From TrEMBL:
Organism: Enterovibrio gelatinilyticus
Cellular component GO terms, alphabetical: ribosome
HAMAP family: RimK
Record protein name field: Probable alpha-L-glutamate ligase
Coiled coil location: none
One MF annotation (Gene Ontology) recorded for this entry: ligase activity
Cofactor section: Mn(2+); Mg(2+)
PANTHER family with a match to the protein in the record: RIBOSOMAL PROTEIN BS6--L-GLUTAMATE LIGASE, RIBOSOMAL PROTEIN S6 MODIFICATION PROTEIN
Protein residues bound to Mg(2+) 2: 260, 262
Protein residues bound to Mn(2+) 1: 248, 260
TM spans (from-to): none
Cofactor detail note: Binds 2 magnesium or manganese ions per subunit.
Family to which the UniProt record says this protein belongs: Belongs to the RimK family.
EC number: 6.3.2.-
Length: 302
């Protein structure tokens, strides 16, 4: 097969591992920087070009689109979809997952457990908003934040009101969530491929820190998840329409709660913590899908 890897940096761990997996399984690959692509959009012969080269002949594309380039990256991915090429995660699913508010609304519609979340645009609604989510402490999140950036824990009502007013004064879009104290600064990252959780790790925040992101200094370790957690992770990925996803869960007194669904989950933390060759499992998934006549027909008809 010929596989395109949409990535801006071939030296990133996740990109390198996908390259190694392609080589080990005998596939041709090409690293494609989405921001260097340009498109010819027409009704007869649409195309995608990269530095003068017409990108043709791909069997599949793996999108590794950073949050900062979601709009253009998804536009390029849509063009591949228009050409009938299988994309591991499609542009619509990625756009859904990147919109934190919309993704939570989709999870809510599917009755998937998640922290109680409030959203408002006016300072006058803050007091009622805090009551809606169960009072303080609360977690205040920027909708555009990634890797734990723009996430604040407000332990008192006064602090929460001040932080929310400050964000609103900057015209920033935020959401307010209940704080799950019993999680103890830890979450579970479930790596979902297709309809299975193929690996899971526990991420633990540093002492005095509530954000467990590895980019914030958190540690990762192998964890055994429950059948309910496995079921919740798969359901959350399906709700977004993602075939490959990192689903972040909190362990609460009322069961697993989905915190976020990531459409471009990193491979370094999960492979290091679990010892699993996740990159090869992604390529194996592509092999199964692309070789299926039924999938071929569905992709070509998009």
């Amino acid at each position: 097969m010929k596989i395109g890897i949409l990535s801006r940096n071939a030296n990133l761990y996740s990109t390198r591992r996908l390259i190694e997996a392609c080589e080990a399984r005998g596939h041709e690959y090409k690293i494609i920087d989405a921001l260097r692509c340009y498109m010819n959009i027409n009704s007869t012969q649409p195309s995608i070009h990269l530095m003068g080269e017409d990108l043709v002949g791909f069997d599949a594309v793996i999108p590794r689109i950073g949050a900062s380039v979601t709009f253009y990256g998804c536009a390029v991915l849509r063009q591949f979809e228009m050409l009938g090429i299988y994309t591991v995660n499609d542009s619509v699913a990625i756009s859904r997952s990147r919109d934190k508010l919309r993704s939570l609304q989709l999870l809510s519609r599917k009755n998937i457990g998640m922290p109680i979340t409030g959203f408002a645009s006016k300072p006058g609604d803050i007091k009622d908003l805090l009551s809606m989510v169960g009072g303080t402490p609360v977690v205040i999140k920027l909708l555009e934040g990634t890797q734990g950036i723009g996430v604040v824990l407000a332990e008192t009502r006064k602090a929460a009101e001040s932080v929310i007013e400050a964000f609103m004064g900057l015209k920033a879009n935020i959401m307010v969530q209940e704080y799950i104290k019993e999680a103890g600064g830890a979450d579970i990252r479930c790596f979902v491929i297709g309809d299975k959780v193929i690996a899971a790790m526990k991420r633990q925040a540093l002492p005095g820190e509530f954000r467990s992101n590895l980019h914030r200094g958190g540690s990762a370790s192998l964890v055994r998840i429950t059948p309910e957690e496995r079921k919740t992770a798969v359901a959350a990925a399906k709700a977004m329409g993602l075939h490959v996803a990192g689903v972040d869960l909190l362990r609460s007194e009322r069961g697993p709660l989905v915190m976020e669904v990531n459409s471009s989950p990193g491979l370094e933390g999960i492979e290091t913590a679990t010892g699993k060759d996740v990159a090869s499992l992604v390529i194996e998934h592509i092999e199964k899908i692309v070789s299926s006549p039924r999938t071929r027909t569905r992709v070509k008809s998009q």
